[in-house]
Amino acid sequence: MGVDRSDYYSKNNLLISNLYNILKGNKNIISEDIDRNVQLISDNISELEFQDIHLEITKSDIIKFTTVFDNNKILIISKNVSDTDTDIIYSYFINRQLIASDVSDISIFIQKFKEYICL
Questions:
Q1: How far is CA 67 from the centre of its chain?
Q2: pLDDT, tens only, 52-89
Q3: Could you report the per-residue pLDDT of 87-113, keeping only the tens digit for each?
Q4: Taking CA atoms, which of 35, 89, 110, 116 is between 20 and 30 Å from 102?
Q5: Number of domain units in the chain
Q6: Can you say whether the dihedral through the CA atoms of 68, 57, 112, 3 is positive or negative?
Q7: Which H or E run contains 87?
C-alpha cells in the first residue's frame, strides 16, 4: 500500500520549515523576499516523495534545495531571493550525471517531474 500524499506532504513541509528555522538562527539577515521564496518552493517541492532534503541560502542570495531520491537521483532547485516571479532553475542528476537542467515555472515543473518520476 502506498503512502498517502497528504502524509508525506505534511512531513516534508514540516521538515523544510525546521531546516529553514535552523538557517534563520544561523543567518544574520533573513528578509521577506527569502521567506516568500522559501515558502513558494516548499509548498511545491513538498509534493514530491523524497528521502532527504537540504536547504542552503548562499552568500549571493540564492536559495538552493537539494532533494535526494532513491537510486542515486538528485534534484536541485535554485531561485534568486530577489526574484518575484515563480520561475526556478532546476538540475536533475542520476548517478551524479546531469540529466536535465532548465528554467521553469515551479508548479508546472513539479507537476511534470511527478509524472516523470513515476515512470
A1: 7
A2: 999 999 988 899 999 999 879 999 999 999 999 999 99
A3: 999 999 999 999 999 999 999 999 999
A4: 35
A5: 1
A6: positive
A7: strand 87-94
